[in-house]
Specification:
- β13, α6 and β14 form a beta-alpha-beta unit.
- The model has no long low-confidence stretch (mean pLDDT about 95).
- The strands form 4 sheets. The protein has a 6-stranded parallel beta sheet with strand order 2-1-5-6-7-8, sandwiched between helices. Strands 10-9-13-14-15-16 form a 6-stranded parallel beta sheet, with helices on both faces. The protein has a two-stranded antiparallel ribbon with strand order 3-4.
- The protein has 8 helices and 16 strands.
- The chain is globular and about 60 Å long.
- By secondary structure, the chain is of the alpha/beta class.
- The chain folds into 2 domains: about 150 residues, Rossmann fold (3-Layer(aba) Sandwich), CATH 3.40.50.2020; about 130 residues, Rossmann fold.
- Bound molecules: ribose-5-phosphate (R5P).
- Ribose-5-phosphate binds next to β13 and α6.
Length: about 290
């Protein structure tokens, strides 16, 4: 088998190590020094060989982590023409279209930056919408953490579980989760004010949730607003316990505490973003895609 090297950016070091182990690849770590003006200086610990895989998520600080990913790709390009760039959580994925006139579709800028830095292929995990993949001119692959999240939740032995998407856009995700879990699903109707960002649940009263434990499934949690509104609505419908399964738990500020306070029993997320809730490892699905 030809040599493979995984370069682990600081934002995804643990996941990159796990990936290297699964691929039986060499691992190259990075040293990061941030200057007082905020500039990053990145140094790779040794020379990468063969096909190179650069792993760096772009969670907050989004622009800094993005620049570090781009810098590592450009550095890797000095050693190989085959650079697979793994961005487990791709920031800006929600800016995939012009929602209001004049808005910049920043995702398309990011797609251009990744290929001009030297990436020959991009792998992302649970991209916000598949439409976003169209912005890339190099091969791009979306892998899903949903089967592993569903298996994790299944071991938690919920009472008569029902899978719920907090919005219609996540209906297919909820359907897939429910298929792996072996149960049924519903999707709520959510409305977000495009100017203020405020979220409202538009669904009328539901009969089918009474007494059932629920798994709210989403691609990401940022401020927690969507999950909190959905939980408050579902609790009013006299459901059982509410669990949250999401791929990317950004949990900005005190979102985790606010979500728990709204009545959520547990939040389970993937290690695309490392943190207290990231209990599901996605190195296996990424390794398979490579
Ligand atoms: C929106 O469509 C996404 O799937 C998430 O539901 C949303 O981005 C989560 O953001 P927040 O936690 O701030 O409501």
């Amino acid at each position: 088998m030809s040599a493979i090297t995984v370069i682990g950016g600081k934002a995804s070091e643990d996941l990159a190590r796990k990936l290297a182990k699964k691929l039986k690849a060499s691992f190259v770590s990075t040293e990061l020094r941030v200057f007082p003006d905020g500039e990053s200086k990145i140094t790779i610990s040794s020379k990468p060989k063969g096909k190179i895989i650069v792993v760096n998520s772009t969670y907050p600080p989004v622009d800094t982590n993005l620049l570090q990913a781009l810098s590592l790709i450009a550095k890797a390009k000095q050693f190989s023409n085959q650079i697979i760039c793994v961005i487990p959580y791709l920031g800006y994925a929600r800016q995939d279209r012009e929602f209001l006139p004049g808005e910049v579709v920043t995702l398309s800028v990011i797609a251009k930056l990744l290929s001009s830095a030297g990436a020959s292929k991009v792998i992302v995990v649970d991209m916000h919408s598949m439409l976003g993949l169209n912005h890339f001119t190099i091969p791009v692959r979306n892998v899903s953490a949903v089967p592993d999240l569903a298996n994790h939740l299944k071991k938690m032995r919920l009472k008569n579980p029902l899978v719920v998407s907090p919005d219609l856009g996540g209906k297919e995700r909820a359907k897939e989760f429910a298929k792996f879990y072996g149960t049924d699903y519903i999707a709520l109707q959510k409305q977000r004010d495009r100017k203020t960002g405020k979220v409202q649940i538009m669904t009328a009263n539901l009969d089918g949730v009474k007494g059932r434990d629920l798994v709210l499934v989403d691609d990401m949690i940022s401020t927690g607003g969507s999950i909190i509104k959905a939980t408050q609505f579902l609790k009013k419908q006299k459901c059982g316990k509410v669990f949250v399964a999401c791929t990317h738990a950004l949990l900005i500020d005190n979102a985790e505490q606010k979500i728990k306070k709204s009545g959520v029993s547990a939040i389970i997320s993937a290690n695309t973003i490392p943190g207290s809730t990231s209990l599901v490892d996605v190195s296996g699905v990424i390794a398979k895609a490579i």
